[in-house]
Amino acid sequence: MSAPRSLFAPASVLSRAEAQEIAQRVLRNSPAEETRVSINSGARADTRFALNQVTTSGENQDTQITITAYVGNRSASVNTNRLDEASLAAAAKQAHEIAKLVPPNPERMPELGAQTYPAFRERALDIPTPAERAAAAKIVTELARANDLVATGFIECRAGATALANSKGLFAYDASASVSMTATVRSPDGTGSGWACTDGNSFGELDPKQLAATAVQKAKDSRNPVAIEPGRYTAILEPTAVGNLVQLIPGAMQARAADEGRSFFSKPGGGNKIGLKVVDERVTLLTDPADSPSLSGGYDNDGVPLEKVVWIENGLVKNLNYDRFWAQKQNVPATRAGGGGFGGTRSLRMLGGSSSIADMIKSTERGVLVTRFWYIRGVDPRTILYTGLTRDGTFLVENGKVTRPIKNFRYNESPIFFLNNLEAVGGTMRINSSESASTGGAVFMPPIKVRDFNFTSLSDAV
């Protein structure tokens, strides 16, 4: 059994050499015809604060090994975090025995052989100390207290390494890190709420002073909101609000669903919408390993090296996501943009323009300024239609000025719809678009101004 970790030892993840040694031990002990070994080694540190004081602080680390055994087209996987040879051998044997019993998978693709990956460069693990995290939280809580407000927030720092190996000679290794700090600041009477986030690849990239100033100002400005009638409004969406919904588009760009007529990207009469215009020509969406907090570019779940993929270019569908099976069936190249790597989602970037939020406000006769969205849930996958709520700072714009805070709205809207109604696009910045504010892949979004955003009802939630 692996030796227990000292509570006083700094968090760490597996090096390339350590991951490769573990994978080799699994492979030489596996009785299966073919074996795949997936390794996920992660370290995490977090600090929470509420009521203007730190409430919890912690660190953890773990290494999970997934052993997949193949018997013809049958396969089974077993997970373990026990790294001694006997435990790994037992898990490999168990996976093999289970694989004999499961139904065959007619779409199973053969394991890949060795691949060529960019050169890997080791770097020091960036997990800040509890004192460093507390100091960042203090910047927010002190400014909130000085303004008779109450701050709550979360700092999360993650570092990790993944490896993938198989009995055909493939070995891939990647490491990454991401850090996020969010804060919600509210007025004591509960009528005002402001939110802000700072995100990066390392703790030193965070800007807690700017976060504190933004959240505090929004909390002050949003007190005592008034109700206005729901309806279709010109909407100015801050980058986080844009990311909350635009990030839902790539997940819908699955080639198989499109080719089978089950997707927004299905072409009427058959086929898919590659080459067709679906949004305003100012919209370009892409994923690029260079944007993600990764050292070597990453790889997908099969070990295929990731590449930059432009999904929508100047409003036209440029690519759909073809997995290896569907690509073979359709006789097209597979898309090198899958998962893989620590944190799951790799990255997403929407190219920006030159308009500022101030410019968008000045040019608006009557509209709604939105900080972010919340409680986002799917309504219709055929149109990528979602519903949700505005949150933590929603304001009325009249005659080129922000005039008053307003009560939150529920909306029913598709990012495809509002990206066809673009009026202005601002500069791109890194954001955290997760509802849970957890760290993840790097997401870069601009603020945008759109026509006829569909706010369907009022919400009394702050």
From TrEMBL:
Top-level taxon of origin: Bacteria
Annotated Metalloprotease TldD/E C-terminal domain residues: 230-456
InterPro entries: Metalloprtase-TldD/E_C (IPR045569), Metalloprtase-TldD/E_cen_dom (IPR045570), Metalloprtase-TldD/E_N (IPR002510), TldD/PmbA_N (IPR035068), TldD/PmbA_sf (IPR036059)
Pfam families according to UniProt: PmbA_TldD_1st, PmbA_TldD_2nd, PmbA_TldD_3rd
Name this polypeptide is given: TldD/PmbA family protein
Family of the protein in this entry: Belongs to the peptidase U62 family.
Residue ranges of every copy of the Metalloprotease TldD/E N-terminal domain listed in the record: 38-99
Gene Ontology annotations of biological process type: proteolysis
Organism encoding this protein: Gemmatimonas aurantiaca
Residues of the Metalloprotease TldD/E central domain: 132-222
Entry's Gene Ontology molecular function annotations: metallopeptidase activity
